């Protein structure tokens, strides 16, 4: 690996606080780094300083001569003209049309956007996708991407992950991305940086590995933040029990995770929550019978057959503009059916968490604690009764925020308050429409924990694959105006013909014989045994090191050298294991 960018003792402050202080870190070729941390801790600031967009107040940033840097910032600035001109500039068509990368980016990001549309006519999401496309067609050595999955649907996120993974050959280029999309972080990143309290902690692996290491770090340090630690252990338990793709790790890693979570129960007690939901709702929630909805005489969804039962937790998937929000309007009664029938149960209380924050405008001048105190004095979470302030704390609000005026809160804090107000209103049918907007990964984890004990019926529309798989038990897709059940979940949705065709376009043909598959499986098994043996040997060496005469420096160094050699060998074997597993999975 070669050094690309280094930060030495950098400091950055704003009028009210020091954001980063005495921070040193580096970026090497081959790095794929995901940046996480609570909103306001300095994730975007750190990335902009490393990219050269922002100058630190102290310290210095060095860059290897000749490297090129590409930046996707939170705000996009596009030139006047058409979408195509904003992406390829003045290059003649015969130059850019022959480039495979350009074709791949245009097909992957411009779905539903006419390339000849004027930039001024684009929506915010379309501008964001256009800016990302303009960046990705280039040949930057280092990419800095701030929330690149915003405004991308599930197909778009998967395309972006595949593009970034194939963009550079092994050990080349570098990527730093700030993202709240945990599936994306797991799919792309090989290291994680957690920004907190003016410093940065580094972790090896993607998001799942970060959760494991962070929990273990807290255990070893005997951390006093019991609630925060329990949330992470609970999330780790779900990661281990979740989709099969997450278990595609060497067995010795899985065994370490199993030891850590062997006493952790499943995230939700499904039977108990269902019985509580039935008690609150009765047998009928919402029935859609051959229901349809139109806009300006054009059918949006039609022939929808869906009986929502008490206690169901359902995720709704679909491309942007497929009709998901229209479907939610049928469910909550805000959109009357143009044909068919929609029947709500008599005891149903529907609340919908929308994508807009304007509903907080009328309380913008009020303090947070006053706003929530008007609704309810207690809130049931599992077997516990929490005061509104306690529920706020569970959702990550520090006590210092309780006296803040609502209008002075950041977007992320407003989103938390918006969710709390919805829950305090006491619905038994909760609809979440893109609930992850403006939320950091810690807040998403806290929200999921609250939903785990919420005894009602839940419908979630989101492009966040991690959230959908985490909080819902079944999934549907809106495709071609119809509602389609997905027994195979998100993976089945992504395998559907039109999506799969878009993803594999221009991909080389792949396939292995039965004998080759068996050989790969045999190789994986052999690698597992060798890594397990090396792990046992390293453990024994550490015991020997602890028991050795501490005055025998020569002997201690000999044992330490043996440990380093075996750990390096194990790391090489793990890389070989991952490469073999990838070949087997794509076979």
Topology:
Layout: E1 3-14, E2 17-28, E3 32-36, H1 43-51, E4 58-63, E5 69-72, H2 83-88, H3 93-96, H4 100-109, H5 124-136, E6 142-146, H6 154-167, E7 174-178, H7 182-188, E8 191-196, E9 199-204, H8 207-220, H9 226-241, H10 251-261, H11 270-281, E10 286-295, E11 298-308, E12 313-317, H12 324-332, E13 339-344, E14 350-353, H13 368-373, E15 379-381, E16 384-386, H14 388-394, H15 411-424, E17 429-433, H16 441-452, E18 457-461, H17 465-471, E19 474-479, E20 482-486, H18 489-495, H19 497-504, H20 514-547, H21 553-585
Parallel strand pairs: 3-7, 3-8, 5-6, 6-7, 12-18, 12-19, 14-17, 17-18
Antiparallel strand pairs: 1-2, 1-4, 8-9, 10-11, 10-13, 15-16, 19-20
Helix pairs in contact: 4-5, 4-6, 8-9, 9-10, 20-21
Structure explained in plain terms:
Residues 5-222, 286-505 form the ABC transporter domain. GO terms for molecular function: ATP binding. Keywords: ATP-binding, Coiled coil, Nucleotide-binding. This is ATP-binding cassette domain-containing protein. Residues 517-576 form a coiled coil. The strands form five sheets. The chain has a six-stranded mixed β-sheet with strand order 5-6-7-3-8-9, sandwiched between helices. The chain has 587 residues and is an alpha/beta fold. Residues 243-247 and 498-510 have low confidence and may be disordered. It is globular, with a radius of gyration of 26 Å. The chain folds into four domains: 3-211, P-loop containing nucleotide triphosphate hydrolases (Rossmann fold); 212-264, no CATH class; 270-503, Rossmann fold, CATH 3.40.50; 514-585. Helix 9 crosses helix 10. The chain is built from 21 helices and 20 strands. The protein starts with a strand and ends with a helix.
């Amino acid at each position: 690996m070669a050094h690309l960018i280094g930060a030495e003792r950098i400091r950055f402050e704003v009028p009210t606080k020091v954001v980063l202080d005495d921070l040193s870190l580096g970026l090497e070729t081959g790095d794929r780094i995901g940046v996480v941390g609570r909103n306001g801790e300095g994730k975007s600031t750190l990335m902009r300083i490393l990219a050269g967009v922002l100058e630190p107040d102290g310290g210095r940033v060095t860059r290897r001569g000749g490297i090129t840097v590409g930046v996707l910032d939170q705000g996009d600035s596009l030139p006047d003209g058409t979408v195509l001109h904003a992406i390829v500039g003045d290059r003649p068509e015969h130059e850019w049309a022959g480039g495979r990368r350009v074709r791949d980016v245009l097909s992957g990001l411009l779905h539903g956007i006419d390339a000849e549309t004027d930039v001024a006519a684009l929506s915010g999401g379309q501008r964001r996708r256009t800016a990302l496309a303009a960046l990705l067609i280039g040949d930057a050595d280092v990419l800095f991407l701030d929330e690149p999955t915003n405004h991308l649907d599930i197909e778009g996120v998967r395309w972006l992950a595949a593009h970034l993974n194939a963009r550079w050959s092994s050990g080349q280029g570098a990527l730093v991305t700030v993202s709240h999309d945990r599936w994306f972080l797991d799919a792309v990143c090989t290291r994680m940086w957690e920004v907190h309290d003016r410093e940065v902690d580094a972790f090896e692996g993607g998001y799942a590995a970060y959760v494991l290491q962070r929990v273990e770090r807290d255990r070893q340090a005997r951390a006093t933040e019991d609630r925060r630690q329990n949330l992470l252990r609970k999330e780790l338990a779900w990661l281990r029990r979740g989709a099969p793709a997450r278990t595609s790790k060497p067995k010795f890693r899985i065994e370490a995770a199993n030891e850590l979570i062997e006493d952790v129960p499943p995230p939700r007690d499904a039977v108990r929550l269902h019985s509580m939901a039935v008690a609150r709702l009765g047998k009928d929630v919402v029935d859609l019978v051959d229901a349809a909805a139109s806009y300006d005489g054009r059918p949006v969804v039609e022939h929808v057959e869906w009986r929502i039962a008490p206690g169901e937790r359902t995720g709704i998937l679909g491309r942007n503009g497929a009709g998901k929000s229209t479907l939610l309007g049928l469910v909550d009664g805000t959109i009357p059916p143009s044909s068919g029938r929609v029947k709500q149960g008599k005891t149903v209380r529907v609340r919908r968490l929308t994508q807009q924050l304007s509903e907080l405008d009328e309380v913008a001048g009020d303090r947070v604690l006053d706003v929530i105190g008007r609704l309810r004095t207690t809130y049931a979470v599992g077997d516990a009764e929490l005061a509104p302030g306690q529920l706020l704390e569970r959702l990550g609000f520090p006590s210092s925020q309780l006296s803040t005026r609502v209008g002075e809160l950041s977007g992320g804090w407003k989103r938390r308050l918006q969710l709390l107000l919805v829950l305090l209103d006491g619905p038994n049918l909760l609809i979440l429409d893109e609930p992850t907007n403006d939320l950091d990964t810690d807040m998403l984890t806290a929200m999921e924990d609250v939903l785990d004990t919420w005894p009602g019926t839940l419908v979630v529309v989101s492009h966040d694959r991690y959230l959908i798989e985490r909080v819902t038990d079944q999934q549907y897709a809106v495709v071609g105006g119809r509602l389609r059940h997905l027994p195979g979940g998100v993976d089945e949705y992504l395998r559907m013909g039109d999506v799969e065709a878009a993803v594999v376009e221009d991909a080389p043909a792949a396939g292995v014989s039965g004998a080759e598959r068996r050989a790969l499986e045999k190789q994986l098994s052999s690698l597992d045994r060798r890594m397990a043996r090396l792990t046992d040997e390293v453990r024994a060496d550490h015991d020997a090191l602890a028991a050795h005469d501490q005055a025998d420096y020569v002997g201690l160094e000999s044992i330490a050298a043996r440990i380093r050699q075996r750990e390096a060998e194990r790391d090489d074997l793990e890389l070989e294991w991952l490469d073999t597993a990838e070949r087997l999975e794509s076979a």
